[in-house]
Structure formats: C-alpha cells, structure tokens
Amino acid sequence: MKQIFVFFALLLGVCAANAQETDTVKYAAGNDLYRGITRKLPYRQMVTPYGVEVTFAKTVHIIFPAAVRYVDLGSNHIIAGKADGAENVIRVKATTEGFPGETNFSVICEDGSFFSFNAKYAREPEMLNIEMKDFLENEDTSDFSHTRM
C-alpha cells in the first residue's frame, strides 16, 4: 500500500512538473508579453507603409492632401521638415551618406490622414517629388482605417 501511495505521489509530481514546463515553453514560443490578457492585432489594422528612397545630395519632396501637423523620424539617418511657404509639403533628405538598412517616418495631416513610410538610401532615388493625394484616391479599398485617424 505504501508503494502504491509513493508511486502515485511521484506520478503526480512528474505530471505537475511537465505541465509547468509546457506552459513556460508555450509562453516563450508564443511571444505573449501580457500572458494572454491582450488580443493580437489583426493584420487589417496595419497601416501599410510606402517605400521612399532618399539620398544625401538631393531632396525628396512629398506633397500631402492637407497641411502637415506632425512628422516623426525613425532615426537620425534622415531629416525632414516643412517646405518654406507650403504647409502640405515636407522635404526629406539623408543626413548620412549611404546609411545601411532602412529607417522610417510618419506624417499626420490636419484632415486626420496618417501616412507611414519606410525610407532607404539610394544614390539616385527613383522619385524626387511625390503626390500623396493620388495614392488616397486610387486605393482599392474603402476601409479608411489604413490612412485616417
């Protein structure tokens, strides 16, 4: 009888240890930072960034559908600011010649539109002047959550 009791106690201890181990592995593998009390963001909520090439020797101008209210830069590899005399135009330029990888920047306009950009260095950018209004009008989706706040 004593042996059966010890056997069940050991079996229970092994099962409890495995349950603890499995939970820890699941937590680490799932990358669930808040231990199940948050929901994963659906892919459709992502604001898809536009790709922009910037260079050290030239300035890229981006024309927005409304006055620019806010600009945030992802790193010090680029610099951006409103163009003199135009509230809806920003200029973007590389501060580091040939910077590696990508950086990003975001723009919010007075009308609530939000734009996200991934910027990479190019010796000769494909576009130096970009009109963003056309991108909004030609989007194939009626869901404004991608561009509006």
Give unreliable regions as ranges.
20-28
Residues in β-strands, percent: 25-35%
- What is the helix fraction of residues, given as a range? 10-25%
Number of helices: 2
Termini separation: 70 Å
User: What is Rg?
Assistant: 26 Å
The name of the CATH architecture of the largest domain is Sandwich
CATH superfamily of the largest domain: SARS coronavirus X4
Q: Report the major sheet.
A: 4 strands, mixed
> Which CATH first-tier class of the largest domain would you pick?
Mainly Beta
Secondary-structure class:
alpha/beta
Number of strands: 8
Overall body shape: elongated
Strand order, main sheet: write it out. 1-7-6-3
Short structural description:
The protein has helices at residues 2-30, 132-137, and strands at residues 50-54, 60-63, 68-73, 78-82, 89-94, 102-109, 114-121, 129-131.
Tell me what the structure shows:
The chain is of the alpha/beta class and 149 residues long. It folds into 2 domains: 1-40; 43-146, Immunoglobulin-like, CATH 2.60.40.1550. It is built from 2 helices and 8 strands, in the order H-E-E-E-E-E-E-E-E-H. The protein has helices at residues 2-30, 132-137, and strands spanning 50-54, 60-63, 68-73, 78-82, 89-94, 102-109, 114-121, 129-131. The strands form 2 sheets. A 4-stranded mixed sheet has the order 1-7-6-3, with no helix packed on it. A 4-stranded mixed sheet has the order 4-5-2-8. The longest helix is centred in the N-terminal third of the chain and has 29 residues, at 2-30. The protein is elongated, with a radius of gyration of 26 Å.
